[in-house]
């Protein structure tokens, strides 16, 4: 706080100055003046927070100085210094609104008390002012949010009932009137050229875009509504007067400023969709759809940034002319066969064919989603598929890339990777029951073992288990069991003196003749001949 000391005697000014440590109270003495008029000019120019002034002075006396100053600057704290003979003047000053008065000779403790009181009031006033500003800001933000809820309802297509409201109802519910003669949607789409989860940096960029649009477009509007939705900033302009030339100028200024985001995201792009003027606000749904369709037309001219809504419709080309029934059948077959390379190749082949229709962005999007739907249909036949991406995931990817070639490349890699990972995982899934089956056979080969018993143990139906087992071991189930039994019989024949009949029973054969026959078939020797080789 800046302090001004005013007294016609220099020594008194010096006395007050040296009486306390001003810094303890968050104060500094900005001046010491001996004339009332000079003091008034200092106050007018320098705007001190506290003035300590004597009553009797040349030029303007203390009472006149207080009265003249407080008329213009109510925020200044005045402290009057008076002698006993000037007490009536002091009372008059208090009525004018001075903070306090001190009697001469000034005592240190009394001055400290007054300064402490002023410091506390100043801090409280500053805090109250700050809190008031915060409340004002919060109130403005709340009002803005309520207004923008109208636009969010339109964007989410949850505002069908808006069509039936009159402007008074809109004002009552959302705090905006939209009384302008002209209405227009602006959609700015941010392409990061990679599918990522939203993060703080991403949010920062979208908020920067929103702020720039507000700065450039709000001056044209009676009311300006703006929201961030996904990768987009959507604005609704409510205008009393409309100039296409002015709108273009402002959009170009916004475009140039927004383009600076490349410093943060070098690979990013933006596209700005501009709707035609709405003849009726109730037509908002169709207008938003056409504006988004205009953004899809970026594929025809990847150097452009601003795209206008078109009302002349799209071309007559059908999806089936590009992705033919034969293409569909072949694509589904490759997916069902889990041929990752063939699926990826076909995505590229179809993508190149689709890209020829770049003038019709909506058609390109529909063809992309056709491939996605075929893929999702094909993987439904995959066994043990725990989780598959949903359509929204692929829609988000489409909205993340600016160029169609990048979208095709992403889809190619995505589908190849998904199938390759699934095939690897299936190997693990199928290997587990085989390991369990082998372990069971090793532990129970001396007992009766059949396909039904083991398949039930590993949790698979017999036919599927038989197929998987043969694929994994290159042996059918019974041959593998026989091999395990014969291996154990050879060990016992070569390392023990047990009778052949006992060995046959221990490896699961109660018929000695059948055991001997199988043993000779597997080793080329009878059990007795084999034992002689090792004894």
Secondary-structure blueprint of this entry?
Blueprint: E1 2-6, H1 10-19, E2 28-33, H2 36-46, E3 50-54, H3 62-72, E4 77-82, H4 87-96, E5 100-103, H5 108-155, H6 167-174, E6 182-191, H7 200-217, E7 223-229, E8 232-239, H8 244-258, E9 269-274, H9 284-296, E10 306-308, H10 319-322, H11 325-336, H12 340-355, H13 361-378, H14 391-398, H15 404-444, H16 451-458, H17 462-473, H18 477-495, H19 500-506, H20 512-523, H21 527-534
Parallel strand pairs: 1-2, 1-3, 3-4, 4-5, 9-10
Antiparallel strand pairs: 6-8, 6-9, 7-8
Helix pairs in contact: 2-3, 3-4, 7-8, 9-13, 11-13, 12-13, 12-15, 13-14, 15-16, 15-17, 18-21
What is the CATH H-level superfamily of the largest domain? Reverse transcriptase/Diguanylate cyclase domain
Radius of gyration: 44 Å
Query: How much of the residues is beta strand, in percent?
Result: 5-15%
CATH class of the largest domain: Alpha Beta
- What is the rounded distance between the termini? 112 Å
Helix content: 55-70%
Count of extended strands:
10
Mean pLDDT: 86
Enter the CATH topology name of the largest domain.
Alpha-Beta Plaits
Q: Keyphrases for this structure?
A:
535 residues; Rossmann fold; Alpha-Beta Plaits; 4 domains; 5-stranded parallel β-sheet; 21 helices; elongated
Please provide a written account of the structure:
This protein is α/β, with parallel strands linked by helices and 535 residues long. The chain has 4 domains: 2-106, Rossmann fold (3-Layer(aba) Sandwich), CATH 3.40.50.2300; 146-301, Alpha-Beta Plaits, CATH 3.30.70.270; 319-419, no CATH class; 429-534, Arc Repressor Mutant, subunit A. The protein is built from 21 helices and 10 strands. It has helices at 10-19, 36-46, 62-72, 87-96, 108-155, 167-174, 200-217, 244-258, 284-296, 319-322, 325-336, 340-355, 361-378, 391-398, 404-444, 451-458, 462-473, 477-495, 500-506, 512-523, 527-534, and strands spanning 2-6, 28-33, 50-54, 77-82, 100-103, 182-191, 223-229, 232-239, 269-274, 306-308. Helix 9 (284-296) links the parallel strand 9 (269-274) and strand 10. Helix 13 runs antiparallel to helix 14 (391-398).
């Amino acid at each position: 706080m800046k302090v001004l000391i005013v007294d016609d005697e220099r020594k008194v000014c010096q006395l007050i100055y040296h009486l306390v440590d001003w810094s303890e109270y968050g104060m500094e003495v900005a001046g010491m003046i001996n004339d009332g008029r000079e003091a008034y000019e200092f106050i007018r120019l320098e705007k001190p927070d506290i003035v300590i002034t004597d009553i009797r002075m040349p030029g303007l006396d203390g009472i006149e100085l207080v009265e003249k100053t407080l008329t213009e600057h109510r925020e200044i704290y005045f402290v009057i210094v008076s002698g006993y003979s000037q007490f009536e003047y002091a009372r008059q000053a208090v009525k004018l609104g001075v903070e306090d008065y001190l009697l001469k000779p000034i005592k240190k403790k009394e001055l400290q008390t007054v300064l402490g009181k002023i410091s506390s009031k100043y801090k409280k006033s500053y805090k109250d002012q700050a809190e008031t500003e915060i409340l004002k800001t919060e109130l403005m933000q709340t009002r803005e949010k309520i207004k923008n809820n109208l636009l969010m309802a339109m964007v989410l297509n949850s505002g069908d009932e808006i069509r039936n409201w009159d402007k008074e109802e809109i004002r009552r519910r959302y705090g905006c009137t939209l009384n302008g003669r002209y209405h227009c949607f602006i959609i700015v789409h941010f392409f990061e050229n990679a599918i990522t989860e939203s993060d703080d940096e991403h949010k920062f960029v979208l908020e920067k875009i929103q702020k720039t649009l507000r700065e450039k477009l709000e001056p044209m509007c009676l009311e300006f509504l703006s929201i961030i939705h996904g990768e987009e900033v959507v604005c609704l302009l409510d205008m009393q007067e409309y100039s296409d030339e002015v709108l273009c100028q402002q959009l170009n200024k916004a475009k140039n400023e927004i383009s600076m985001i490349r410093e943060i995201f070098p690979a990013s792009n933006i596209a700005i969709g501009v709707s035609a003027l709405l003849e009726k606000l109730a037509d908002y749904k169709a207008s938003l759809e056409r504006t988004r369709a205009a953004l899809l037309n970026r594929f025809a001219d990847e150097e452009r940034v601003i795209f206008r809504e078109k009302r002349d419709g799209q071309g007559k080309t059908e999806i089936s002319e590009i992705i033919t029934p034969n293409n569909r059948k072949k694509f589904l077959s490759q997916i069902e066969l889990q041929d990752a390379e063939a699926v990826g190749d076909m995505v590229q082949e179809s993508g190149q064919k689709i890209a020829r229709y770049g003038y019709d962005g909506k058609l390109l999007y529909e063809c992309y989603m056709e491939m996605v739907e075929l893929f999702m249909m094909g993987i439904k036949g995959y066994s043990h598929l725990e989780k598959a991406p949903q359509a929204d995931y692929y829609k988000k990817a489409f909205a993340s890339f600016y160029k169609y070639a990048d979208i095709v490349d992403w889809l190619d890699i995505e589908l190849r990777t998904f199938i390759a990972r699934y095939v690897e995982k299936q190997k693990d899934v199928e290997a587990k029951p085989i390991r369990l089956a082998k372990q069971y056979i090793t532990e129970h080969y001396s007992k009766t073992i059949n396909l039904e018993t083991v398949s039930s143990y590993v949790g698979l139906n017999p036919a599927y288990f038989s197929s998987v087992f043969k694929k994994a071991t290159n042996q059918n189930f019974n041959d593998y069991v026989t091999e395990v039994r014969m291996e154990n019989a050879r060990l016992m024949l070569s390392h023990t003196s047990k009778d052949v009949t006992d060995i046959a029973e221990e490896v699961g054969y109660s018929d000695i003749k059948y055991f001997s026959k199988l043993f000779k078939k597997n080793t080329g020797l009878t059990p007795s001949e084999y034992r002689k080789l090792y004894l």
